[in-house]
Each structure stands twice: as C-alpha cells, then as structure tokens.
Amino acid sequence: MAAREDKKEIIIEKAVSVFAQRGYYKATTAMVAKEAGVTQPYVFHFFANKEELFKAVMDRAFGRIYDTFAKIDAPADQLIETMGHAFEEVIQTHRDEVLMVMQAHAISEEGIREHVRKLFKTIFDSLSLKFERAGIPEAEKTAAHFIGTGLLITVAEVLDLPQLTKGVGDDG
Amino acid sequence: MAAREDKKEIIIEKAVSVFAQRGYYKATTAMVAKEAGVTQPYVFHFFANKEELFKAVMDRAFGRIYDTFAKIDAPADQLIETMGHAFEEVIQTHRDEVLMVMQAHAISEEGIREHVRKLFKTIFDSLSLKFERAGIPEAEKTAAHFIGTGLLITVAEVLDLPQLTKGVGDDG
DNA sequence: AATGATTTATTTATCAATCAATAAATAAGA
DNA sequence: TCTTATTTATTGATTGATAAATAAATCATT
User: Fold this and answer.
1) Shortest Cα distance, chain B CAs vs residue A46, angstroms
2) 3-class SS at B74?
C-alpha cells in the first residue's frame, strides 16, 4: 500500500488538473479524490479544508514557473527573449498549471487571495531582481510588462482568441 | 410602485456591485435581491437563471468601457495616451465594473465563457480598427497590449500590489 | 366616481440537489 | 496487539429554482 506521502503527492498532482479545468468553485473534493483513486473524506486527512488543498496546488504550480525563471542564465541582451521562450515552453508542457496561476487572482476567498498575493509578489520581485542584475533599465517596469503579457496569453488561451497574441513576444 | 423595467434596472445595477465584490460563484441571487429591495425568487421573474443575470450585468459593464473608447476622438499622436487616461478615469468612476470585466475570463461556466469571449473580441476589434484608422502601425498588437495593460492593472488592484503598475501607462 | 373584474407585480414557503466536513468503523501492517 | 491507513455512512448548511398565494394596479362598466 502506498505510503502516506505518496498519496498526498498523488492528490496534489490530480488536484492540479481538476482545479485547472473546472476552476476553484466548480472543482469538488470528490472529483479530486476520484482522480487520485481515494475516497472523498480521505482528502481531508491530508488537508484541513478545501482552501488548504488549493494552496498546496498553487504552490506546486507557482513553484514550477518560479524555478523555470530562476535557473535561466543568459547574457543581458538575450535575457528577456530567453525567458519569454522559457515561459512559452512551460505553457506547452504544463498548460493547466500556468493558466490556473494566471487566473487565481479572480478567486474571492480571502485566505486564497492573500496567498496568491504573496506568490505574485515573489515572482515579481525575483523577476525585477534578475532584470536589475542583468543591467536592464527600468527593471521593475519590464518585470510588470512580463507578467502583463502572461496574463494576456492566458486570456487569449482561455477565451480562444488567438488574435490577442499575434506578434506578442516579439519584443520586450 | 416602480414599473417592471425600473425594477429590472435596479436589479442589474445592484447585481453589478454584488458580482464585482464577491465574484460570480460567491455572489448569491439572494444577496442581489436584498440589495435591490426585492425577494430572491422575484429575480427569476426577470432573468431565466443566474447565468442570464450575470450576462446582463456583463453587458452593462462592458458597454461602459466600449462607449468610453468609442467616443474618443484625438489626433493620432495623442490617441493612445488619451485612451489610456480615459481608461484610468473609468477605473476610478466605475472600479467594480472594470475589475469584474477583467476577471470574467476566469469563470468556468461554458455559457458565460462564450459570452465573455464575444465581448472581449468586440472590444479588441474596435480598438484595432480605431488604431488602424488613426494610422498607428501594428494596430492589432497595440490593441492587444492595451488589453494586457488593463489585465495587469486589475491584478495589481485586486491583489493590492501597486508595484505592478508603477510606471505603467507612461508609454504605449 | 364607485364597483367589480382582470391582469400585473411581488412575496411566502418550500424543494431538490450539491458539497464540504465529521465521526465511526474496518482493514492492513508491524 | 497496537498503530497507521482508509472507507462507509452521515450531517448540516447553502443555494438555485419552482409553485402557490397575495397584494397592487389597471380597466371596464354602471
């Protein structure tokens, strides 16, 4: 029988796709449990409530994006382009996670909103620092633009409006 | 006693703020009814279901943003700046409506998503056309960037991260 | 103008469904 | 046997929605 940590891991993994596809409110703990091959009440053995489960899922998804940017090391004049490509790659390999992260700001649960706030701030700060260290002028503005582009890509994906991203990513 | 259309109007008006403040799923028809000074079932006398009510609310909010841009007439070299200022003004005068529109893409109700898609497309097309007619190069890309900035402002507002919008709006 | 009939507006009461969460019971392994 | 892992059974709370009842307004007729 699978060890406790394994089961917890599986639940988080499956919850990512359930939350991503249905959104926080339409995703039920029963669905997550079913996907993970576990009974619904057993989810609450690992997470105090639905909110805590979602936070764990967000940490997982955010972490992947954070790590993707963190490990990039390119010369200043290619940094933004390289990071842009890296982001596009994450979107392809972990589409659900990225879309979920970029839509999380719309969840009106106070605890979640605060958590999401911290995660966005962490990403923004690390982007700013990276750009600043690379000697890129207006590092913060560039970081903000980077996030704004991510949001735009998400809306284009979710609403199936590819026109919105035609030519996006060509420059900074 | 208020005429039928008046009541419907009042319900939409109050529903805007309820939906904006609580989000689609956490907003209940009972709350909307209470704010409008009406009983909960009576809301269903005007709208077939919660979804239809929300669509009406979205039309109202989107319409305001659309009209704001539509009536702007400025020389090409000042158009984007003028429109940016106009948008900032709408955010101040009708904050709830703007934030709601910019977050609507995260609602996972199929009917709503399709409606939101059409509204976003309408705005994007009209922005593109306006920029194109003004002789602005890369009109579509500019329109997309405009929307992306709106999304960024929304996230900054909702998550209380003013750093994200420091310096945003200074250029195109 | 007063009265009664008829339609329109609005409420009370309630249903059926869903869901997160708890508690108690059982199975498995050490 | 004792602990850990997991399930069954159940609950309490919400919520969108419906149906039946009431009140208010409108209108026709005397």
Assistant:
1) 26
2) coil
Among B32, B15, B146, smallest CA distance to B84 is for B146
DSSP letter, residue A47: S
Nucleotide C10: closest residue by CA–C1': B42
Alpha-carbon separation of residue A2 from A8, A80, B17, B48, B85 (angstroms): 10, 43, 48, 49, 58
Q: What is the CATH number of the domain that holds B75?
A: 1.10.357
Structural domain includes residue B150 = yes
Q: pLDDT tens digits, residue range A123-136? A: 999 999 999 999 99
Residue B30 CA to nucleotide C11 C1', Å? 14
Number of structural domains chain A divides into = 1
Residue A82 near residue A72 (C-beta atoms within 8 A): yes
Would you state the structure tokens that stand for residue B40, as one six-digit string?
């909960």
- Domain limits for position B78: 49-164
Nearest CA in chain A to B105: A155
Tokens 């979107």 correspond to A91
Angle, helix B139-158 to helix B95-103, in steps of 10 degrees: 110
d(CA B54, CA A8): 37
Contact list, B98 vs chain A (CB under 8 Å) = none
Establish if B33 belongs to a structural domain. Answer: no
Proximity of residue B40 CB to strand D below 7 A: yes
CB-strand contact B154/D, under 7 Å: no
Q: What is the mean pLDDT of chain A?
A: 92
Residue B22 lies in a domain: no
- Nearest chain B residue to A112 by CA: give it: B159
In a domain, B11, yes or no: no
Whether A44 shows a pLDDT value over 70: the answer reads yes
Distance CA B120, CA B166 (A): 26
A152-169 average pLDDT score: 91
What number is the average pLDDT over the span A58-83? 94
Please enumerate in sequence order all residues whose Cβ is within 8 A of that of B169, keeping only pairs 6 or more positions apart, or say none.
B84, B88, B149
